[in-house]
């Protein structure tokens, strides 16, 4: 609304709400800080878990940042941006989601202090951008190159990722299993290692314990053989991967077949059976003893395959068909008539097993498989789900190191070193950008402080001691969450991929800058009616709040 003399001019329909300037900044920053505070207590090896209960009573228990944020029904637009940071971090690296969100929340908290001192949001945003670029440079300079074939180093990275995920008792076994899985599917392209995580299938089955989790050198399929007379176990399997049906092609819906005599009917049925027999004969002559079919298998074909001692599964998912081809080296065949022996894949063993009351087919012992399966076991569904999330994070870490071959230590060491260097850099800036860059440096200290708090140690003492150690030139000095002492984290084998840190800081600074640049919030009247209520901190009902 603007005024001309005494006559008000309305530019928005009735029921709309608008917040401008400092009030808009305050509301956005408050929403982002609430999201960061929600998952802050989950950070680090001593982080706590969250129990999320939905409207139908389903429960998720986790300390995985992105899972918590996805499960919460966040409605506030600024808060949704924080969720996007976690999702981006998850997609790019697979780990470090909580770190990214906590840093973003702290950057906005520091920005709020500067706004109170009348520093313009554009200046703060520019200072954050310069500081973020400097942080990236510092991380690149301090990162350590590793040999991607050093399995011990890769296991240490997995161990760091798994710590605090609730599977400590058997992490030795899981470490080796995860490293082996990623190394199997890694491929070299133009001198660079590329890891397509789609080629690692994670299959969950309750029953047994986490220690029963196993790596299958091939693919597991949630299907059983189509005929009980088929062999249950095939050694030295020659595998046909078929994307068409093992059936006679049905006529179009508008096709008419006129049969006037029993002889014609008999001839028609015999012709169909002849076509199926020709298909099975073709399969037999190539030496095929295992068939995986994406579509249906005719009853006659099932019977004939069983007589030939061939193991067959039907209606296999398209994604599994592709993985089968990669794992066994088979070519996906669309027409049986064109089948040759070269199209077949190989597996040392194909067998049907009963796992947790369900029949599954294991395609195992493949030669140099480019797709593998990790079969995750656990006593309850909640345990299996949490182990799966831990494995996903660890796989992302190993893949990031193989692709980038650079690491840093954990325990808050890189954040303190970057903070120290950014603070020096801030002193070279002119104007108020210097204040923003210093605030950026202060915000990075939230990681070691939070690690200390979550482990029950005094954060102020820890921060003073860790900063003193870095001033003395101890590059990898970080907090030992078990004892509260400051130790060399590289020597303690607390190691993280460089990409986790760079992505977290970049994402956090980008979203902080974006939120700072919003100075006007216009909320529709319809939202006011649908989402009435108040957010913590007093957000009016007219603006979408945050619920769970």
Describe this protein's structure:
Among the domains are: 19-145 and 408-449 and 497-530, Orthogonal Bundle (GROEL, domain 1); 219-368, GroEL. The model is unreliable at 527-548 (pLDDT under 50). It is 46% helix and 18% strand. The protein has helices spanning 22-40, 65-71, 77-92, 97-116, 121-142, 151-162, 171-185, 262-285, 299-307, 318-328, 381-404, 413-426, 433-444, 446-454, 459-471, 498-516, 525-530, and strands spanning 2-4, 7-9, 17-20, 50-53, 59-62, 144-145, 187-189, 192-194, 200-206, 214-216, 219-221, 233-242, 290-293, 311-313, 332-333, 345-355, 358-364, 372-378, 406-409, 477-479, 486-488, 495-497, 520-523. It is α+β, with helices and mostly antiparallel strands.
- In percent, how helical is the residue content? 40-55%
CATH architecture of the domain at 19-145 and 408-449 and 497-530: Orthogonal Bundle
Indicate the mean pLDDT: 82
Biggest sheet, in brief?
A: 7 strands, mixed
Strand residue content: 15-25%
Shape assignment: elongated
List low-pLDDT spans. Answer: 527-548
- Going by helix content, strand content and strand pairing, the class is alpha+beta
Q: Going by CATH, what is the homologous superfamily of the domain at 19-145 and 408-449 and 497-530?
A: GroEL-like equatorial domain
Compute the number of strand runs. Answer: 23
Any idea what the radius of gyration is?
Answer: 30 Å
CATH topology of the domain at 19-145 and 408-449 and 497-530: GROEL, domain 1
Give the count of helical stretches: 17
What's the CATH class label of the domain at 19-145 and 408-449 and 497-530? Mainly Alpha
The separation of the N and C termini measures 35 Å
């Amino acid at each position: 609304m603007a005024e001309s003399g005494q006559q008000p001019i309305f530019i928005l329909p009735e029921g709309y709400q608008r917040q401008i300037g400092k009030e808009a900044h305050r509301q956005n920053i408050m929403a982002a800080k609430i999201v960061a505070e929600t998952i802050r207590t989950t950070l680090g090896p001593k982080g706590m878990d969250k129990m999320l209960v939905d409207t139908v009573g389903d429960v998720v228990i986790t300390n995985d940042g992105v899972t918590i944020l996805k499960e919460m029904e966040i409605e506030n637009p600024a808060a949704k941006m924080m969720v996007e940071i976690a999702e981006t971090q998850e997609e790019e690296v697979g780990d470090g989601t909580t770190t990214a969100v906590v840093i973003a929340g702290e950057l906005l908290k520091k920005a709020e202090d500067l706004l109170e001192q009348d520093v313009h949001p554009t200046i703060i945003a520019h200072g954050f951008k310069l500081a973020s670029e400097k942080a990236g440079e510092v991380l690149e300079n301090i990162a350590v190159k590793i040999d991607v074939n050093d399995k011990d180093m890769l296991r240490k990275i997995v161990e760091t990722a798994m710590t605090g995920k609730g599977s400590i008792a058997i992490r030795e076994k899981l470490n080796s299993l995860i490293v082996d899985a990623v190394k199997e599917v890694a491929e070299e392209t133009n001198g660079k290692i590329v890891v397509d995580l789609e080629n690692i299938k994670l299959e969950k089955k309750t029953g047994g314990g986490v220690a029963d989790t196993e790596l299958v050198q091939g693919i597991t399929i949630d299907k059983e053989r189509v005929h009980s007379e088929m062999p249950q176990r095939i050694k030295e399997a020659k595998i046909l991967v078929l994307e068409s049906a093992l059936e006679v092609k049905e006529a179009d819906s508008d096709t008419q077949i006129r049969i006037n005599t029993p002889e014609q009917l008999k001839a028609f049925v015999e012709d169909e059976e002849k076509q199926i027999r020709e298909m099975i004969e073709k399969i037999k002559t190539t030496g095929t003893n295992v068939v995986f079919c994406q579509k249906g298998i005719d009853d006659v074909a099932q019977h004939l395959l069983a007589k030939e001692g061939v193991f067959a599964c039907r209606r296999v998912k398209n994604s599994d068909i592709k993985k089968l081809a990669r794992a066994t080296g088979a070519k996906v065949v669309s027409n049986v008539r064109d089948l040759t022996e070269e199209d077949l894949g190989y597996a040392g063993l194909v067998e049907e097993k009963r796992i947790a009351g369900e029949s599954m087919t294991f395609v195992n012992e493949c030669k140099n498989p480019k797709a593998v399966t990790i079969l995750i076991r656990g006593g309850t569904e909640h345990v299996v789900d949490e182990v799966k999330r831990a494995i996903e994070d660890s796989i992302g870490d190993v893949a990031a190191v193989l692709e980038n071959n650079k690491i840093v230590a954990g325990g808050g060491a890189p954040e303190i070193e970057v903070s120290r260097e950014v603070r020096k850099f801030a002193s070279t800036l002119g104007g108020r950008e210097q204040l923003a860059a210093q605030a950026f440096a202060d915000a990075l200290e939230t990681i070691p402080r939070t690690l200390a708090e979550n482990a029950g140690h005094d954060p102020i003492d820890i921060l003073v001691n860790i900063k003193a150690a870095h001033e003395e030139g101890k590059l990898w000095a970080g907090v030992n969450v078990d004892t509260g002492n400051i130790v060399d984290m590289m020597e303690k084998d607390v190691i993280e991929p460089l990409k986790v840190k760079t992505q977290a800081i970049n994402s956090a600074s980008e979203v902080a800058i974006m939120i700072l640049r919003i100075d006007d919030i216009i909320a529709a009247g319809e939202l006011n009616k649908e989402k009435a209520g108040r957010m913590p901190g007093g957000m009016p009902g007219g603006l979408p709040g945050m619920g769970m």
